[in-house]
Amino acid sequence: MFRTLDDLDPDQRVLVRLDLNSPVEDGVVQDNRRFERHAETVRDLADAGHRVALMAHQGRPGDDDFVSLEQHADVLADHAGVDVDFVDSTFGSPALEAIRGLESGDVLLLENTRMTDDELPEKEPEAHADSEFVRTLAPEFDAYVNDAYSAAHRAHASLVGFPLVLPAYAGRVMVAEYEANSAIATREFDGNVTMVVGGTKATDVISVMNAIGDKVDTFCLGGIAGELFLRAAGHPVGEDVGDMDLFDDQWEKNHETIESLLDERGDGIELAVDLAYEDENDERGEIEVAAITEKDRPYLDVGSETVAQYEPIIHDSEAVFVKGALGLFEDERFATGTVGVLEAIADTDCFSVVGGGDTSRAIELYGLSEQDFSHVSIAGGAYIRALTGDPLVAVELLKTE
User: Fold this and answer.
1) Over 80: is that where the pLDDT of 401 sits?
2) Structural domains in the chain (count)
């Protein structure tokens, strides 16, 4: 399927694309799971004696998190256990000079790829391969490694241009993410397959449900999508209240699909039986869905009875996929749904994939162990594409068969 790091000839000059895009708070880049994951690829290449130059992006032009990668080099070095030098140039003279000075086992991080004009426009790979960015950097290297699975759905120069002009290989993260995230489309499971669906981007997860419904026995819903399905089932929820802007627009875009899914697959769609809210004492309150007569407040989590309803479904599954949180888990009062289903999955002997950066953060935040899950993905948009079976342009360019 892919050529991997293990297929590289000795002493190669290797250009590597990572995804180190991270939250930035008060100008400080925050450590996260991406650094830890990509560190394996960096460490393996350095230990093998290759001369390594790294590319990555951070933010978008005009956004607050559009910053230099200088801090990223230090964070990555801490995780990889090797020195990571930094040059504030992507393919200019300072970058070329630093690249040519690399010796065996050296690692260099180039400046933010999105600070170059050639990077961001979505173009065909052939057009990117002919860009000044690619034509300037490629001759300095023997091989290209793409480890940025979480950005692989984007047709940007650093992701799709280099595989056309250099021998291309998949990094450790790329291989692990591809195998786990495509399992729902490519693997056959003898027992029940369950998908836990939540989050705020209901349009994304509804498209997944529509695309892979025949591969999933039961969907357990929460979050924005869960409320929208409750609305379609006739309950007075799934609407914006106050200055909220989460439900009505997504309802307009998706209500026909939601109603069709309920009509065709209603027996395989489990909806919340109770919801949680912030009461007058700023505590968690819960109300049965059947008792709601109008939506007069935000609902911030599924309720305890819903978790109890979902747990045996998960325990009886051979495979469980998670996309999106069931509530506002960052607030401990409203973590019951998300943490409850994650604990149920962790206690089940099943193949399990937890997708999306936000949801996977709950594992660390609430003291769960990644080892209790088959795979915890660091991808968002790429995970959605993989679940629906849509090809990822940067992944396709790495395939050898």
Assistant:
1) no
2) 2
Using CA atoms, how far residue 330 sits from 25, 80, 111, 364, in Å, is 16, 28, 32, 11
Where does 130-247 have alpha helices with state H?
A: 132-137, 157-160, 172-181, 183-186, 202-212, 223-232
Give me the mean pLDDT over the 384-391 stretch.
79
Say if CB 223 and CB 325 are below 8 A apart. yes
Do 173 and 40 contact (CB within 8 A), yes or no?
yes
Using alpha carbons only, how large is the chain's radius of gyration in Å?
A: 23
- Helix locations, 219-335, DSSP H: 223-232, 248-265, 304-315
Q: What are the CA-CA distances from residue 257 to residues 208, 236, 237, 246, 369 (Å)?
A: 11, 19, 18, 18, 36
Please answer whether residues 386 and 185 qualify as being in contact, where contact means their C-beta atoms are separated by less than 8 angstroms. Answer: yes
167: CATH: 3.40.50.1260
- Supply the pLDDT for residue 391: 86
Q: What is the largest CA-CA distance in the chain?
A: 70
In our burial notation (b when 16+ CB lie closer than 10 A, e otherwise), range 117-150 reads ebbbeebebebbbebebbeebbebbebbbbbbbb
* pTM listed for this prediction: 0.85
**Which pairing describes strands 301-302 and 274-278: parallel, antiparallel, or unpaired?**
antiparallel
Residue 376 forms part of a structural domain: no
Range of the domain at 313: 182-368
Q: List CB contacts of 366: < 8 A, sequence separation 6 or more.
A: 329, 335, 339, 342
